[in-house]
């Protein structure tokens, strides 16, 4: 069994370690937030006018101000990013594939935007 002094030392060491780790992580958080904002801005741009036909022509997505009448209403469907990326790469129903029109980075940005804007992001 550990003595009270050892227990106090261990507790103090754990507190110091957690403060140090938190302090090291804090400078990274604004950079992550800025990257996320840039991805979302690119995703919205691509949704509205990035490819032909644009997503907004067919899909309704309130956050983008889109009122398409052909494809599903994304606000109701609430797809996650993986589902959006799969549809973009492979096509789905009447929706064509965009794998030859968008880079992987653009597909990621567009998928992130649609999933967050529709409420499907987890």
UniProtKB/TrEMBL annotation:
Keywords: Electron transport, Heme, Iron, Metal-binding, Signal, Transport. Transmembrane segments: none annotated. This is Sulfite dehydrogenase (Cytochrome) subunit SorB. Residues 1-33 form the signal peptide. The keyword Heme applies. Residues 38-118 form the Cytochrome c domain. The keyword Coiled coil does not apply. GO terms for molecular function: electron transfer activity; heme binding; iron ion binding.
């Amino acid at each position: 069994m550990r003595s009270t002094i050892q227990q106090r030392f261990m507790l103090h060491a754990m507190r110091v370690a957690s403060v140090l780790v938190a302090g090291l992580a804090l400078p990274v958080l604004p950079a992550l937030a800025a990257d996320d904002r840039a991805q979302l801005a690119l995703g919205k741009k691509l949704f509205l006018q990035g490819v032909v036909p644009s997503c907004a022509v067919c899909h309704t997505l309130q956050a983008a101000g889109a009122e398409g009448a052909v494809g599903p209403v994304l606000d109701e469907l609430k797809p996650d990013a993986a589902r959006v990326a799969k549809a973009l790469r492979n096509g789905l129903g009447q929706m064509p594939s965009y794998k030859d029109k968008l880079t992987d980075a653009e597909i990621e940005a567009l998928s992130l935007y649609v999933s967050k804007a529709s409420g499907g992001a987890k």
